[in-house]
Recover the amino acids of this structure.
């Protein structure tokens, strides 16, 4: 364990853990049933008012989590910076990229975004629909749910490839009826040094990005979004576990947001079928990731000097 852990008396740690878990559990049982109940009404009639109400209920649940962070975990110091040129609105439409190190990343995103951006969604697997409560909540709240087929299945039935694209387009277009933030962890998995070494990643602090998901989202939504936003999360004392975070053992968290300019050539390209476009798009993402890697280095250096 690195120096990131704040040593707490055992009784204090147990008390804090029980407090946090009790409040989150109680809040979930309070907010969850109304979301599911209202979601069932959409089986009979789609309603923008129902969607908005469910988002308000979800934001209320998130506000309880944020209250815990501010009042039960007051020792966590947040360093949040929004670079010039990025103006955020609760009524905006955003695509967001982010580095991925811990399950805590999603909580950091929610903590930052609750009062600054629309509810954050991310692509989920269709199979999650069968997880009681969680899968149904994702579906009701408009998380794009993908039925992805394997390369072997597509080889046997090429029509499945087009079906996957149609499902992706349908899922994304459903977001356009309301403000949204659609998050994409380009690395596809959480960063570990072992994964970094196995990949022989050219970046010091990042895994190799998987550009296909971003290309798909930009192809479908690029003309409709207000900004492509890049979030960078740094844990100066080491990436924490989820339990460590909720026990208040993460002393510092740094967040940087910047706007990524989208070149005109990016929109409208065919990443799957156009090899030249795919190579050019991957080069563009590589440049973005190189800049992000340097930013992480600078953020870490800033805290090392304090």
């Amino acid at each position: 364990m690195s120096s990131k852990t704040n040593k707490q008396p055992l009784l204090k740690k147990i008390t804090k853990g029980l407090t946090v878990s009790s409040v989150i559990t109680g809040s979930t049982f309070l907010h969850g049933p109304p979301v599911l109940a209202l979601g069932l009404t959409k089986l009979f009639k789609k309603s923008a008012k129902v969607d908005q109400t469910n988002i308000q209920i979800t934001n209320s649940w998130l506000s309880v989590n944020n209250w815990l962070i501010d009042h039960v975990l007051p020792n966590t110091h947040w360093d949040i910076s929004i670079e010039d040129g990025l103006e955020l609105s609760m009524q905006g439409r955003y695509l967001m990229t982010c580095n991925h190190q811990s399950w805590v990343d999603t909580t950091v995103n929610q903590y930052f975004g609750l009062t600054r951006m629309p509810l954050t969604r991310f692509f989920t697997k269709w199979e999650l629909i069968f997880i009681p409560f969680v899968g149904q909540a994702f579906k009701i709240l408009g998380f794009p749910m993908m039925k992805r087929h394997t390369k072997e299945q597509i080889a046997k039935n090429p029509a499945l490839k087009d079906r996957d694209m149609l499902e992706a387009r349908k899922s994304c277009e459903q977001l356009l009826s309301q403000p949204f933030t659609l998050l994409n962890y380009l690395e596809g998995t959480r960063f570990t040094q072992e994964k970094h070494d196995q990949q022989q990643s050219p970046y010091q602090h990042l895994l190799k990005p998987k550009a296909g998901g971003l290309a798909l989202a930009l192809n479908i939504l690029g003309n409709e979004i207000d900004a492509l936003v890049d979030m960078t999360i740094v844990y100066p004392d080491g990436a924490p576990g989820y339990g460590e975070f909720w026990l208040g053992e993460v002393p510092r968290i740094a967040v940087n947001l910047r706007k990524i300019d989208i070149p005109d050539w990016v929109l409208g390209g065919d990443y799957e079928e156009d090899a030249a476009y795919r190579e050019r798009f991957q080069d563009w993402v590589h440049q973005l990731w190189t800049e992000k890697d340097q930013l992480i280095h600078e953020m870490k250096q800033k805290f090392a000097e304090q």
